[in-house]
Amino acid sequence: MMKFGRNSGHEIRRPDEHRGDVNPQAFMKGEMRPGEKLIWADRPVDMGSFRRKKYGMALFGVLFFGFALFWTAAASGMLFGQGGTGSVVDFIFPLFGLPFIVVGFGMLTSPIWATFQGRRTLYALSDQRALVSVGGLKRSINSWPLDEIDEVSRTDSASGNGDVIFAKTWVRGSKGGGHWEQHGFFGISDPQRVEHAILHAREAIRLARNAQSGANDQ
Questions:
Q1: Running DSSP on this structure, what letter comes out for residue 93?
Q2: Which of 126, 162, 196, 218 is the most exposed place for a label (fewest CB within 10 A)?
């Protein structure tokens, strides 16, 4: 898959050396550049935000997984009382269905994997960037410069938690088509405060830039 968009972010991948509980403040302070100030850092508290993003894939996975099982069973002669010839082909041919079963199972269980990913995710806001760090075999760190963020939207849940979305990219599928992928802070506590902090930090950058431009023109 390929991602396009002005707000596609900047990604760094490195071995994940923090596989247990990580202090978001301490970890994200280590990601600050010289002169950069950490404003906020936290981790998701509501894993439902991660699961909901995968419900569509899981629904499609039910059909995909079911068809893959049916095809493999039919090809092996397990259905309809079919008998093979006893040749090597009768044994090998059904094996072509196994990769599709694995893919379908992965799609079907994608909300579960999304929950694991959410538990290894850290968020941060500095006076220059918004950062998302996801752990795994390798920890990926994506960042979005605040002056490149155009729109900020917020979704609140009844629990008081919510999502703050600040970027989206177009993900092109391998066979054409694609979908928009949202980027932001998902399942965080007090999303309104974080949204206001993003807007305030972005405005501070723009005011400083305008002041600098005015000084240069004099």
A1: G
A2: 218
- Strand runs (DSSP E) across 34-90, as ranges? 38-42
Burial class (CB in 10 A: 0-12, 13-18, 19+), 28: buried
Predicted TM-score (pTM) of the model is 0.71
Are 35 and 128 in a shared domain? yes
**114-143 burial, b for 16+ CB within 10 Å, e for fewer?**
beebbebbbbbbbbbbbbbbbbeeebebbb
* pLDDT tens string 38-74: 999 999 988 877 777 776 777 877 888 888 888 787 7
Tokens of 200: 């305030």
Same domain flag for 137 and 187: yes
95 and 196 assigned to the same domain: no
Q: Where are the beta strands (DSSP E) in 18-160?
A: 38-42, 121-126, 129-134, 138-145, 153-156
Co-location of 34 and 68 in the same domain: no
Residue 22: φ, ψ to 5°: -110, 135
Task: State the residue range of the domain holding 74.
Answer: 56-110
* Domain identity same for 185 and 86: no
